[in-house]
Structures are given as structure tokens and as C-alpha cells.
Design a protein that fits this description.
This protein is mainly alpha-helical. The chain contains 16 helices and 3 strands. It has a 3-stranded mixed sheet with strand order 1-3-2.
């Protein structure tokens, strides 16, 4: 210890400076000062920890309410939901029992697509037995690129061997799948899952759940000129589907399965165009174009019906076609289309895949006639 007056060294037991005689600070007092300093430092540390804990809890609360979920990155970049989407998502949490039963990511997945799920469906199609046991299909598929357009709410998907702008041949064919179509599929999947849940629990179903969802989607997509946003999807979910959930989380797993089946049908249909050579030429009239669509439908149906869980996957074929059928019904367009009418494609799917259709009808506990009544 040093003397406060002259700076000379003072022994730990000395009460006065040996050089100037000044009184030193008693040892007890020095200890008290040290304790006070330690207490001050402890208070500052406690305050910092409390602030950090509060910030962490706030972040966790926001995640739980679905306010700050960002889709995982993948082969293509994803975008974070807009501020209005995040505000809307927070309203889902208003149903407290339901929110407590499902993870926040599962809540988001009920009304908006997640890139990993879409890529999972793509992988299932590309690596299916139907593709891998056919030399031509497997070789062609090995060159195909897949793009998920996360920023586009358009209800569409397409396959191409050419650059859309320049018309020049690409180095490899490409399938492009739009966020809007994947969004519409999620809503329809929840409706199908609720249909099965009621069938399991009540022994009967209210077919209006699926039908009303398809009608609402068709009206929304028509109003938006062929698009559906996450906010639109959330509004339909809250209005039509959330009231039907009744605090039961059991529908969420099946909804994921049905959505994957629908994704697989869309991707398999587009892959069919590539494997069958449709993208290498140009259809010279509408009849050729429509026949190519029928061939791609048959290709996708064969791929799904030869896969595991085909009865669930075949439903994907039917429900995607229903989405387009209700869209066509709401737009009532007189314009000549390159595609067959979705109503025709729905009926063809049932009649051309009779065994899978019978299994689907049996699972839905609906006759073929009742299934056809889902059409507009």
C-alpha cells in the first residue's frame, strides 16, 4: 500500500507512513471499500443480464407468434414475409389453445409454403421408381434444374428448354414453380386434412369445408388476376379453416402430407413435359397443346400411383385440378386455352386411374358421384 500524501510504501499492518507520519486508511475501511466496489459491479452485471434476458424473451415471444419467421435457405433464395404478412400472422396466435398445441413454424406452414418442403417433394419426384427405372426418363431428369419463385404470387408452374426472354435453348431444361400455386395448395391441404379428421372423429364429414375453401381461393385468385398472396391465404385460413380446428392439432401432420402430394403432382406434371419431349418443340395448334397437357397429366398420375402411399398422393392430383377448376369457374374466361378444361382433367384423372381413384374415394368415404360434386 502507498501513502496518499508522499507515495511511500507502507506495510500492511502500519497505521502511519514511516516517512511523513500521515495516518493510513484502516485495513477494515479498505475492505469495506472493496466490498462496496464489488457490490456496484455485481449490480451492473445483474442489470446487464436482466436486459439480455428480456431481449431474448421478447425474441422468443415474437417467434412464437409467427412475427419473425424466415424460411430456411436452399438452392434458390427465399424472402422474409412482408411486414403486413407478419402482422397478419400474429393474429393466428389469438386462438391460444391452438397456438399452444402447434410449433410456430407449423402454424406458418398451414397457409404459406416452406422451401425445404417444396424441395423435398421435388426430390421425391426426381428419385421416384417411375423415373429411375426408365433409362430415358432418368437421363433426362438428371439434367433438369428446379426453381422455386418465392417472390411471385402467381398461380402457375411451367417447364422449358428455352430462355423465356430470348427463346434460345438453355444448357439444361428447367422447371419453374411459383409461390402462389404452392400457397393455394397449402390451404387446400388443410381443408382435406380437416375433412379426414371429422371423418375419423365424427364418422361423417361436412363436405362444405373443402368446397368453401376452393370457392374462396377461386374468387381470390380471380380478383387478383391469377395470384394469391400470403396475406390472402392467411385471411382465408382465419375465416374458413381456423374456426374448424377446435383446438385439435391432429390435422397438421396429414395436411403436410397432402400438400406434399399436391406439390409432387405439379412437379411430376412439368417433368412429364420434359421427359416426353414437349419442351423441345413448339405446339402448332391448340389441339396439340391440349393433348400434351393430357399426356403430362397421365405421366404424373403414373408416377404418383406407382409411389408409396399412392392413395394419398393421388389425392394431390385431384385437389390441384380442383383448384384450377374453381379458378376457371370464377373467371369464366371465353379465351381459348392451351390447356384442357380442369373439369375435364378432373374427370379424366378419376376414370383413367380407376384403381387409385377407388382407393381415394374409399379413404374420403365419398362415392365417385360425391367427388364429382366438388367440381363447380
Amino acid at each position: 500500500m502507498k501513502c496518499a500524501q508522499c507515495g511511500s510504501l507502507i506495510g500492511p499492518l502500519s497505521s502511519n507512513c514511516p516517512d511523513c507520519g500521515s495516518a493510513t486508511l484502516p485495513q477494515a475501511t479498505a475492505t469495506e471499500e472493496m466490498e462496496r466496489e464489488l457490490q456496484r459491479m455485481q449490480r451492473e452485471l445483474d442489470q446487464q443480464l436482466a436486459e439480455a434476458s428480456a431481449n431474448i424473451q421478447q425474441s422468443l415471444d415474437q417467434l412464437q407468434l409467427g412475427l419473425s419467421f424466415e424460411m430456411a435457405s436452399g438452392p434458390t433464395s427465399t424472402s422474409v414475409a412482408s411486414e403486413s404478412d407478419r402482422r397478419g400472422a400474429s393474429n393466428v396466435g389469438a386462438n391460444k389453445p391452438y397456438r399452444e398445441l402447434l410449433h410456430p413454424i407449423e402454424i406458418n406452414a398451414l397457409y404459406q409454403p416452406q422451401l425445404p418442403r417444396v424441395m423435398e417433394a421435388c426430390s421425391a419426384v426426381f428419385n421416384s421408381m417411375f423415373i429411375q427405372t426408365n433409362v430415358l426418363y432418368s437421363q433426362r431428369t438428371a439434367t433438369v434444374g428446379f426453381v422455386f419463385e418465392v417472390d411471385s404470387p402467381v398461380i402457375n408452374a411451367y417447364a422449358t428448354d428455352r430462355d423465356i426472354k430470348s427463346g434460345e435453348l438453355l444448357k439444361s431444361p428447367r422447371i419453374v414453380y411459383f409461390h402462389g400455386l404452392a400457397t393455394a395448395i397449402r390451404l387446400a391441404a388443410v381443408a382435406v386434412a380437416l375433412h379426414f379428421r371429422d371423418l375419423r372423429d365424427k364418422g361423417h364429414v361436412d363436405q362444405s369445408i373443402l368446397r368453401d375453401t376452393l370457392i374462396a381461393q377461386g374468387e381470390c385468385i380471380s380478383r387478383n388476376q391469377g395470384s394469391i398472396t400470403v396475406q390472402d391465404s392467411l385471411a382465408i385460413f382465419q375465416t374458413l379453416l381456423l374456426p374448424k380446428i377446435d383446438g385439435d392439432e391432429g390435422f397438421a401432420g396429414p395436411a403436410r402430407s397432402y400438400a406434399m402430394g399436391m406439390d409432387m403432382f405439379v412437379i411430376a406434371h412439368e417433368l412429364g413435359h420434359i421427359c416426353l419431349g414437349h419442351t423441345l418443340g413448339m405446339a402448332v395448334n391448340y389441339d396439340i397443346s391440349r393433348n400434351q397437357e393430357r399426356q403430362a397429366d397421365s405421366f404424373a398420375a403414373s408416377l404418383l400411383s406407382s409411389s408409396a402411399f399412392r392413395e394419398s398422393l393421388f389425392l394431390g392430383n385431384l385437389i390441384v385440378t380442383l383448384i384450377f377448376a374453381w379458378l376457371e369457374a370464377r373467371t369464366s374466361s371465353k379465351k381459348i386455352s392451351t390447356h384442357p378444361m380442369s373439369r375435364e382433367r378432373f374427370i379424366d384423372a378419376i376414370r383413367s386411374n380407376s384403381e387409385a381413384a377407388r382407393e381415394a374415394c374409399a379413404n374420403l368415404r365419398m362415392t365417385e358421384e360425391q367427388l364429382l360434386k366438388l367440381l363447380p
